[in-house]
Amino acid sequence: MVIMLQPEPVTLNNSQVYVNPKCKPSPVLIPVVNLTDQNAKTQIVKACEELGFFRVINHGVQPELLTQLEEEAVKFFALPQSHKDKAGPADPFGYGSKRIGPNDDVGWIEYILLNANSDTKTTAVFRQTTPTFRETVEVYMEEMKDMSSKVLEMVAEELKIEPKEKLSRLVRVKESDSCLRMNHYPEKEETPDKKEVGFGEHTDPQLVSVLRSNDTEGLQICLKDGTWVDVPPDHSSFFVFVGDTLQVMTNGRFKSVKHRVLTNTKRSRLSMIYFAGPPLTEKIAPLSCLVPKQEDWLYKEFTWSQYKSAAYKTKLGDYRLGPFEKQLPFSISSV
Ligand SMILES: C=C1C[C@]23C[C@@]1(O)CC[C@H]2[C@@]12CC[C@H](O)[C@@](C)(C(=O)O1)[C@H]2[C@@H]3C(=O)O
Ligand SMILES: O=C(O)CCC(=O)C(=O)O
Ligand SMILES: [Fe+2]
Question: Judging by beta carbons within 10 Å of its beta carbon (0-12, 13-18, 19+), is residue 187 exposed, middle or buried?
Answer without folding.
Answer: middle
